[in-house]
User: What shape does this take?
Amino acid sequence: MELTGAQALVKSLEMQGTEVMFGLPGGAILPVYDPILDSPIRHILVRHEQGAGHMAEGYALATGRPGVAMVTSGPGATNIVTPLANAYMDSTPLIVITGQVATASIGTDAFQECDITGVTAGITKHNWLVTDAQDLPRIVAEAFHVATTGRPGPVLIDVPKDVSQSMMQWYWPSSVDDLDLPGYHPSKEVDPLGIAQAATLLAEARRPVLYVGGGVLKAHAHQALRALAEKLNVPVVTTLMARGAFPDSHPQHLGMPGMHGMYTAVTAMQQADLLVSLGARFDDRVTGKVDGFAPHAKVIHVDIDPAEHGKVRRPDLSLVGDAKEVIEALLGATSAPVEGQLDPWWDQLRQWQAQYPLYYDAPQEGQLLKPQSIVEALRDGSPEDTIVASGVGQHQMWASQYWRFNHPYTWINSGGAGTMGFAVPAAIGAKVGRPDRTVWAIDGDGCFQMTAQELVTARTEGIPVKIAILNNAYLGMVRQWQEMFYEERYSEVYLSPDLPNYVLWAEAMGCVGIKVEHPDDVEGAIAKANSINDRPVVLDFRTDASEKVFPMVASGTTNDEIVVHPTQGGRR
Assistant: This one.
């Protein structure tokens, strides 16, 4: 069967089970948009290419399937660089297809030409510049294979216009052996000797902690994790990228560690004699000052990416492999602890939990809303399996702290890159992937203004997401740092609470807009938002700009110097 390169590309996406893609057409990619009309793949037309990338990320994070985005050359391609970098940092499987100028024009500074494979070489697992239409099915199969195996991540396929217009003879690779990936061999086998050594270390530990990262979710290992934790009666901490991998309601869960983590989670890691790192990468936001991190602990590091082992903290035992397979092997190799062996450890942990819970001051008469209480009200007024997306900043930390994540794949956020503007498009992508779920985006007013135009996409495409803006009229996290470390010199962080008018903005985009200023109106506004399912809803919560995120480990300090709320004594 003879097809154009464009037809072969679309058919290849169909062969990979692609149900939806996010994109924006332009000259170089235009030939590929024609066969989309005849394809069962749903195409969602975004208003900015960054939105396409973040929607694809949200879709991937909510479903576990790779997200697909397609944009044109030049500025279309460069506009999706931020989502690629974000996906690369957070190991999110993403397939990005870009148009390119005709092959004969490459290198001539042609209209809308950009060396996007060169630009993205450091922020993709791999990228391809297609020079022959006959290669397209194989390359698409390779791209999906690379994006979804080993440590997941984004890939990019750059398709020149003449290649998409050329004719090719259709085929489809029958197996992985037909792919041309000679240097790509993701680790699969679990080292039985390493498992035995890990079991010995666990049996000897008196203050163990399971340090759970996003790799557990990528490996779909949440059930195995719970079984292991319960068998060993070991406390669990879940990083920002692993929220929901272990239920917040579980008595063995200590919460999130890190710069704005729970006091008990942070301090448990500091005092542990054994850290079992499962799919985590010892990020600087978790470790604080590295040479003061968990100074008494032996470390077992489990990660599928060999490059992560020893990169930040030298492990005592390195286990390269899929988190689910390693955890299941540990389940078979370990025994329940000796009765009473961990009782002193648990007594200490419960003492810390009682002494330093999350805390914020109750609002006084006439004060603006407390952002923490808004997150609690959203949580309590929404279904338990609600998917929550967030932007980046104070509202992200409050969302992670005060929501209860008892289900995996219900927390959609930008971790490693810290991308402002992530929440709205990511929530849209998540809702496309899980239309049966309620999807809330908890956003800041600064983040919202970066990508809010995608609510037009949501309204046009019938995607009823719900947006809660914690509107404190500031770039909140920057303000917090300026207050604490720059003598309250608030340089370029004020945004104004009323410019823009968020209710009118929402209405102009075809959404429902509601402003909430009084505590008595919070629950009713949330209930109304949850009852509207035919269009997006934007709630503008007027929140207190003086609120800061606690606990906090300041940059350059050790986790032992964690600062709690002033009413709890401040610096510990």
